User: Fold this.
Amino acid sequence: MYSQGLIGADGRTTESPEFLEAFQRRIDAEEKIEPNDAMPEGYRRTLVRQIGQHAHSEIVGMLPEGNWITRAPSLRRKAALLAKVQDEGGHGLYLYAAAETLGVSRDQMTEELLDGRAKYSSIFNYPTLTWADIGVIGWLVDGAAIMNQIPLCRCSYGPYARAMIRVCKEESFHQRQGYEIVMTLARGTPEQKAMAQDALNRWWWPSIMMFGPHDADSQHSDQSMAWKIKRFSNDELRQKFIDATVPQAEFIGLTIPDPDLTWNEAKGGYDHGPIDWDEFWRVVKGHGPMAKDRIKARRKAWDDGAWVREAALAHAEKRRARKMAAE
Amino acid sequence: MALFDAVLELADDHLVLGHRLSEWCGHAPMLEEDLAMPNMALDLIGTARTLYDYAATLEGQGRTEDDMAYLRGEREYRNLLLCERPNEDFAQTMLRQLYFAAFMHPYWQAAAGGGDEVIRGVAGKAVKEMAYHIRHAGEWVIRLGDGTEESARRMKDAVEALHLYTGELFEEGAAEGVDALPSRAAIKPAWEATIDHIFGQALLSRPVVQYPQTGGRRGLHGESLGHLLAEMQSVYRAHPGATW
Assistant:
């Protein structure tokens, strides 16, 4: 792995005004920042936090969807869901690799996830209660993720931007697949349609909360915008998502659970009802319904697998020693 | 209908083992295995789908692959006992995979030259997949067998727990006398050679089994298969006739 040599590397820079100005000029000229380039410590930290959170979200996100692999209601759906959850794991893998170019190891990031220091997308702290949730997660949660992630393909940090190109292609496929699951249910038996509507009712608000607090309350935004890590504000992205999703729901005869949702001709977009920010902050702060179970499951997998990882290292060491002895 | 029954047996082996592997998804010892096990599960489930579809065609009564998978109970499932054994730990999971793939690889090689077009097609693809499964699972059996004290103990325990189910691999079952499919008994020398080659590097030995377990082909399973099927079939059976 090419990033190995960078882990723990001393990336400290003397952040004189001239250095910061020169860095900003590179950003403004749309140059990509690469792993060995000098960068402000804040830029590095912001990216480690963001890429790490993104990677953790992919990994924890395997759990709510993995919950339905063994119960998928047809062999075709079972295979597709397995492949989808596998894709999420793959995203986690190359996002961890992108973060490693900034000097942190995957093991370090994993420890931070397991002991609660690192965050992940709080959407995954809601439970998947029926098969319809698998469709709605693909449609809404992956749909919202794409809105957030497409601009990241142009992020100023090269390894992250390049990783996002592939991630977005796969997420876009997942979104269409999820919508197709929901469409099939909406056109199915009355029970299937009710299942789809119920899942939409439960996932709609958490999905639009995925874009984060209103712009006025977003603490990381201004600097991230200046550094071109972020290119659109939370509210702009949320608006795009709602405008794209409402007609999709209408097309399959499902109702968005927001009585205040109305088309605003003047702005050319939908106005939505108030978001329950108390719920948002409760879940973000780790009190979502499945928060404890998710970390418990990740910790169990990590702890139960310790002997396997130790054995792999021990075996590799034995092989190396044997090879040395033979030479 | 001997071919139908034999194809169903093969399909059940692949679906049940694929389902077992899929249970690991999101819970593996390392991220790389969270990708590798679903990958192998997808190979097996893909093969099962083609075989169920073929069985349904041979039967000619309008059943679908999903009817085959979701509407038969444990007494009607014909899979090998080996395939349904619970995952337990990573050592048992990898050994179970090795035992199965070390059989299926030469089996599909032989089937690729047989007289049935569908089986030849399945075999052509599955041969490559099984070669990879042998490599992946075999490397883990070697790493764990010759790793730490704990991993070596777990690997020996895995052999102890699973070897008694391997004799069933070589029973002809419904394929007895079916020209389109290879003799299962004839695969034994190739299987033993693969296992011995890997066990040699894993510091393991192939035990002599006094009391082999068998019966899967007659629907005589262990208790865990019923739970696997109850889980797998729950949504499908709760909505009879629905399309997914």
Q: What stands out?
A: The two ends of chain B are 30 Å apart (CA to CA). Chain B touches chain A through 49 residues (CB under 8 Å). Chain B has a mean pLDDT of 97.
